[in-house]
Amino acid sequence: MTHLLALSELSVQQIEGLLERAQAIQDHGVAPRITEPAFVANLFFEPSTRTRFSFEVAEKRLGFNVLNVEEATSSVQKGETLYDTLRLLEEIGVRAAVIRHFEAGFYKDLRDRLTLSIINAGDGDGHHPSQTLLDLLTMRQEFQQFQGLTVAMIGDLRHSRVARSNAEVLHRLGVKVILTGPKAWQDPSFPGSYVSIDEAVETADVVNLLRIQKERHREMDGFTPEAYHQAYGLTLKRAQAMKPEAIIMHPAPFNRDVEIASELVESKQSRIFKQMHNGVFMRMAIMEWACQGRPNANNQRIELTV
């Protein structure tokens, strides 16, 4: 089976292949379509707007029949385990499950017990591979290459699965990763060097801001939203010191006037909504990669045609 769990499990060549496929789908303007009916399921156990709807649009553009499993109305509320839910989906013919889960590494005891593909749509403070891939696609479109770039990851690093995924992959791609954020939210395991917020903004080619993960810690370590904005946010004054060709990114949802000044969200240097746009094409490439050639219960294989 083909899973997408963490990008650390993929080679640079595999990552580049997924990026190239997403770009090709976007450039051609024609979506590949499955030739035989097939089902995929989305299971989101944490709130999500961008990731969930982006995957659903991608799946429907590919021609999949889509099942959306709601935690509140599923048998999880009756004590059913995630494994048993997935075995049910497997038995009724679901080819792939896109899962957002609050537990980091939820997939570790599932990957070898199932024949359906698991696509990790974010696991606690662990990994978020599809977000990292769409971030890479956005950077690639802007700069054509990764080697030699400097990317600043700014904010709540310790609780951010996006930061963890991005830092690891960027390092392998030859990108210089610099980090900054409140000391209590730093993580020494991240590849990269810590610098001041002003140095990060002034030297980065990509200023990648991170949402404060309020749901993963009880308080903002003494920060008010206004104080955080002044200490670690991209203020209008700080943005003036950015390189002219540098871009602003944020995985969203973003808190206006906390991580980023509201006026900068749709500024000339911002690529925040471009990231969202790229998410559909990237997730189409992911679903195609995960499902193409996979046999179903009748030993029929999914084939996609353009």
Automatic annotation (TrEMBL):
Q: Where does carbamoyl phosphate bind?
A: 50-51, 100, 128, 131, 252-253
Where would I find the Aspartate/ornithine carbamoyltransferase Asp/Orn-binding domain in this sequence? 147-289
One of the Pfam families matching this protein, by short name: OTCace_N
Q: Where does L-aspartate bind?
A: 78, 161, 211
| Top-rank lineage group of the source organism | Bacteria
* Pathway membership, UniProt: Pyrimidine metabolism; UMP biosynthesis via de novo pathway; (S)-dihydroorotate from bicarbonate: step 2/3
**Aspartate/ornithine carbamoyltransferase carbamoyl-P binding domain mapped to chain residues:** 3-141
This entry's Gene Ontology molecular function terms read: amino acid binding; aspartate carbamoyltransferase activity
Which of UniProt's keywords are assigned here? Pyrimidine biosynthesis, Transferase
Q: What is its EC number?
A: 2.1.3.2
Q: Can you supply a Gene Ontology BP term from the record?
A: 'de novo' pyrimidine nucleobase biosynthetic process
Q: State the protein's purpose.
A: Catalyzes the condensation of carbamoyl phosphate and aspartate to form carbamoyl aspartate and inorganic phosphate, the committed step in the de novo pyrimidine nucleotide biosynthesis pathway.
| Protein name listed in UniProt | Aspartate carbamoyltransferase
Gene name, Swiss-Prot/TrEMBL: pyrB
